[in-house]
Design brief:
The chain has helices at 20-30, 116-151, 160-163, 204-208, 211-237, 241-276, 280-294, 349-374, 407-411, 438-445, 478-492, 536-548, 564-570, 583-594, and strands at 305-310, 315-321, 331-336, 342-346, 382-389, 398-406, 449-450, 494-502, 506-513, 521-528, 533-534, 553-558, 561-562, 578-581. The chain is flat and about 130 Å long. It has 602 residues and is of the alpha/beta class. 37% of the residues lie in helices and 14% in strands. The chain contains 14 helices and 14 strands. The strands form four sheets. A five-stranded mixed β-sheet has the order 1-2-5-6-7, with helices on both faces. It has a five-stranded mixed β-sheet with strand order 8-9-10-12-14, with helices on both faces. A two-stranded antiparallel ribbon has the order 3-4.
């Protein structure tokens, strides 16, 4: 029934409801269960009623066996359809809702059939998740590129001069720059300027009638009186115990500050004197300060480095903790398969290994440069750096890189320029081949041993171990052993030292001794680290080298011992120009000429 604006009925109206099959299909799509009456009819309210009123089977409804028309019950009740006997819906079969071409009701979803809309939504969710995961992988690549850039920044020198502190005294607040001479405030300093006279012939009484001037004059008198009271208060409190105590406290605090700066500089100067004397504690303290300062550019990438100084060879052995292997991304991104699965796109193992080694090379060069920059007094003769991968799953750390660099090599070693550390190209971005990476190239120019594949846990032999400060000959690196031999022989009188061959086991060099020295003439020196005995064939080889170099004498130095055959051979007339120094002799020379012991065992 419809009603007009004046509230009267416009006549009957037919109310159309959706087909029952439509709502049933919607409920099934939403996963809801249909409630049915015992006779199989779908109910929408309590007591099996289709609405709020009685059903069509009631007294006002049509006959269940008649063929009457569609009737309506009381207000709010749904329509009830009655048909011929046997043609209406039975107790176990709902009313006919019509069938489609395939025999199914309209809107009906067959069991097991996929909904096209749901498939599209699932595909969209999978695509969004794939994009989100790819962005996360790209963020890891960006972080690695940023670490590579910051690790290549030059290191500022942390020498003694840069660590000195300077004392700047702070004045007492009453004596500060803003404080003026404590004189009595004068009214002339506060009085406002009189307003200009409009009429030159008018007297001063007319200017005093200016309201603006009177307000300024009153404000100036209040300011002058306030300043006068404060001045009298300061004069009264100038000799008070509280003011004297405040001044004494300020002076005591300033004296404490000056004393702390002076004591720190004196301790720093004492460390400098100890450093110049090559005391291990002072050298190691300075080196570790410089190494810690070098890490400020990459504080989010902990790479601690410890230093051990060996005064015997004046060499610092650095142990650098390398970052974990999972820092380098193992994936390029994610992709969505045609069947909707999210698949990973792994990076080539060689690219991942190269990126990790590029980061390791920058960290190693940064530590070497920090040690070289802080050694302003040239105490160090060389630096050995070992990069260790410490995995909690394994008991022993793995050495992935080892560098044995002398002073001359360190002087030529610098990090990448801070402005353009990379040359980006369209095909590789910030990543480059290992052969083209400048940090790895410079590291290999130092003779560094670098693992070919860190992810395969392939380690390298450390050039030297950061053990005791008094090592054995077998614990020395190749550069350390060469430096030790050179120091021993130059102290004995051989000058113009020239190394011809050098390897992990020893060296071959030439030198000339001044006339009148302990070792005069031209020499060919063959020094090696051995644990066994030296045979006669090596003595014959050294004798041939002496003739080829037009030298006068030959020296065979070993940390091992010589056989009786060799001793008899050098005692003969043809080999008296060949001199021998065994392990005991090396240790005796180190104690005599260097004043430092050489541990046994090598």
């Amino acid at each position: 029934m419809q009603y007009s604006a004046d509230g009267r009925s416009d006549g009957p109206v037919t109310v159309r409801f959706p087909r029952p099959g439509f709502l049933a299909s919607v409920f099934r799509d939403l996963g809801a269960e249909e409630e049915r009456e015992p006779d199989g009819a779908v109910t929408g309210g309590p007591s099996g009623a289709a609405g709020d009123g009685p059903s069509g089977d009631g007294p006002t409804g049509g006959s269940s066996t008649g063929t009457g028309p569609t009737t309506t019950g009381p207000a709010g009740a749904g329509p009830t359809t009655t048909g011929p006997a046997g043609a209406g819906p039975s107790a176990s079969e709902p009313a006919d809702r019509g069938t489609g071409p395939d025999g199914q009701e309209p809107g009906h979803v067959r069991p097991g059939a996929a909904d096209p809309d749901e498939a599209v939504a699932a595909h969209a969710r999978a695509a969004a998740l794939t994009h989100h995961r790819t962005l996360a992988v790209q963020a890891e690549h960006d972080r690695l590129a940023d670490l590579l850039r910051r690790a290549a920044l030059p290191v500022s020198a942390m020498d003694f001069e840069s660590q000195l502190r300077r004392y700047q005294p702070r004045p007492y607040p009453a004596d500060g720059p803003g404080a003026t001479e404590d004189a009595e405030p004068r009214w002339e300093d506060f009085a406002p300027a009189e307003p200009p006279a409009a009429d030159p012939d008018s007297g001063p009484s007319r200017r005093l009638l200016d309201s603006g001037y009177q307000r300024e004059l009153a404000q100036a008198r209040l300011t002058h009186q306030r300043a006068l009271r404060e001045w009298r208060t300061r004069r009264a409190e100038a000799g008070s115990p509280a003011a004297d105590e405040s001044r004494r406290a300020h002076e005591a605090a300033e004296e404490a500050r000056a004393r702390a700066v002076r004591e720190y500089n004196e301790s720093l100067e004492e460390c400098r004197r100890a450093y110049r004397l090559a005391e291990p504690a002072a050298v190691e303290s300075l080196l570790e300060r410089a190494l810690a300062a070098a890490e400020t550019a990459t504080q989010d990438l902990p790479a601690p480095c410890r230093a051990v100084f060996r005064p015997l060879t004046r060499t610092a052995v650095l142990d650098l903790d390398l970052p974990p292997l999972d820092l380098v991304p193992s994936l390029t991104g994610y992709r969505l398969a045609p069947d909707g699965d999210i698949l990973t796109v792994p990076r080539p193992p060689a690219d991942r290994a190269t990126d990790y080694l590029r980061l390791v090379a920058r960290l190693a060069l940064r530590a070497l440069q920090a040690a070289d920059a802080v050694d302003t007094d040239e105490i160090l003769a060389g630096v050995v750096l070992n990069g260790w991968l410490r995995d909690p799953a394994t008991a022993e750390p793995l050495c992935l890189v080892s560098v044995d660099a002398d002073r001359d090599a360190l002087a030529r070693t610098r990090l990448l320029p801070p402005g353009t550390p990379y040359e980006e190209r369209d095909d590789e971005g910030v990543y480059a081949d290992a052969e083209q990476d400048e940090a790895l190239v410079r590291l290999r120019q130092l003779g560094a041993a670098v693992t070919p594949d860190p992810y395969d846990r392939t380690g390298v032999q450390p050039a030297a171990q950061a053990g005791a400060t008094v090592p054995a000959a077998s614990d020395l690196s190749a550069n350390e052993f060469a430096q030790l031999v050179r120091d021993l022989l130059t102290r004995g009188g051989i000058a113009r030292w020239s190394v011809r061959l050098r390897g992990p086991a020893g060296l071959v060099a030439t030198g000339e001794g001044a006339p009148g020295s302990a070792l005069p003439g031209r020499w060919v020196v063959w020094a090696s680290r051995d644990t066994g005995s030296i045979g006669a064939e090596q003595i014959e080889t050294l004798a041939e080298a002496v003739g080829e170099e037009s030298a006068e004498r030959g020296l065979r130095l070993t940390t091992g011992r010589f056989t009786e055959e060799v001793l008899d051979l050098t005692a003969g007339e043809n080999h008296r120009h060949i001199h021998l120094i065994d392990g005991d002799g090396v240790r005796e020379l180190a104690h005599t000429h260097l004043g430092l012991p050489l541990a046994t065992g090598g």
